[in-house]
Amino acid sequence: MTDRNLALLQRARQLIPGGVNSPVRAFKAVGGTPRFVQRAQGAYFWDANGQRYIDYIGSWGPMILGHGHPAVLEAVQRAALDGFSFGAPTEREIELAEEIVKLLPSIEMLRLVSSGTEAGMSTIRLARGATGRSKIIKFEGCYHGHADALLVKAGSGLATFGHPTSAGVPPEVVQHTLVLEYNNVPQLEAAFAEHGPAIACLMIEPIAGNMNFVRASVPFMRRCRELCSQHGALLAFDEVMSGFRVALGGAQSLYAQHIPGFEPDLTVLGKVIGGGMPLAAFGGKRAVMEQLAPLGAVYQAGTLSGNPVATACGLATLKELQRPGFFEALGARTRSLVQGLSAAANAAGVPFCTDSEGGMFGFFLLDQLPQNYATVLRTDSASFNHFFHAMLDRGVYFAPALYEAGFVSAAHTEADVQATVDAARAVWAGAHTPS
Ligand SMILES: *Cc1c(COP(=O)(O)O)cnc(C)c1O
């Protein structure tokens, strides 16, 4: 049989660098041939060979309802008939803003954009403009999109200003980006003690999904909030992944259960709010948001921002999430998956630990849950890659890198979960079941 995925990869490579339009799709970390998707429905997609996969990526988070949800499809089709893009305001943008503000009380005003990168980048500019300060704090292992100032890793000693992680980013562009270790309170305190008056904002993924799945501890988050308030820096939550994914109120609602009155100053959203269409947002306190053009001096704009088809898709998606019991059911299904995988690993004597929240999960071939990026990287990549490919052969599509989170949608059934767990048991038992 000819492998159409391979044929497509070879064709794509002639025209598109690496054959892909976003690097993680290339399977560079795990090796092998990326699957070219032909179509998707519910919890599954089919590749160019017609093989079906249970999809645990869901477009890296947006497809929380599964693929092709009827209500979303209908909203998108109806919106498309009325026009694709106008470059002028529409009522639907207000409706989406009202919906987001209702569900995330820390947001009083927001602006819609087209990607998480754009939203994160604009948040940094806004925080700098609003505070009149230059420095920003980010944490190693957190991803906030590919804007220059955020493509930075820790220097030789941590708590130094970092080094660019990409060619083409001049060192001067990251000289104001302080990179700290996630969940490290003493280092955070030291950074504020030294640089406090110069810090515009601290940006954090509260539940990090770009170093697999690592939560900020409650004491750590409490110190982030206290130190930002004390030093006049803005606390910016990057909930592009966790927003409307871990809970209806995002990760911020979970921290608010443990820290009375807890709120971030700014929130970055993306992924789920577009339901699979290019849509993202950033928002927060009115006084800060009013610094944006045309009211204020911080410039930010976009030809396709608030796109009418994308807002229809996002609105329909957010409506479905608010059905009673939605997150309880999603969380239970996700727990069933990770507990099943955990039991299968334990039975086979494979080191394994896992965590999940709502429809987002992580698993590690480690004995202990990591608290930061350095410990995530202790995973044996050869074991992970073997597991990834063996599952793929059995029709289960997990993220093709050990430092990515996974996603369960409302379309995943208990039968899908059981099929996944059975496949994992077979892989770890070394049993050879033909795919
Ligand atoms: C995906 C992601 C981004 C970037 O969003 P894009 O739409 O890919 O530009 C930013 N922050 C977090 C936490 C993300 O997961």
From TrEMBL:
Name of the protein this chain belongs to: Glutamate-1-semialdehyde 2,1-aminomutase
EC number: 5.4.3.8
Gene source species: Serpentinimonas raichei
Pathway participation: Porphyrin-containing compound metabolism; protoporphyrin-IX biosynthesis; 5-aminolevulinate from L-glutamyl-tRNA(Glu): step 2/2
Record PTM N6-(pyridoxal phosphate)lysine, positions in chain: 271
Keyword Transferase set for record: yes
Catalysed reactions listed for this entry: (S)-4-amino-5-oxopentanoate = 5-aminolevulinate
InterPro entries: 4pyrrol_synth_GluAld_NH2Trfase, Aminotrans_3, PyrdxlP-dep_Trfase, PyrdxlP-dep_Trfase_major, PyrdxlP-dep_Trfase_small
Listed GO biological process terms: protoporphyrinogen IX biosynthetic process
Family in the record: Belongs to the class-III pyridoxal-phosphate-dependent aminotransferase family. HemL subfamily.
Record's keyword terms, sorted: Aminotransferase, Cytoplasm, Isomerase, Porphyrin biosynthesis, Pyridoxal phosphate, Transferase
Cofactor names: pyridoxal 5'-phosphate
Keyword S-adenosyl-L-methionine included in the entry's annotation: no
Subcellular location: Cytoplasm
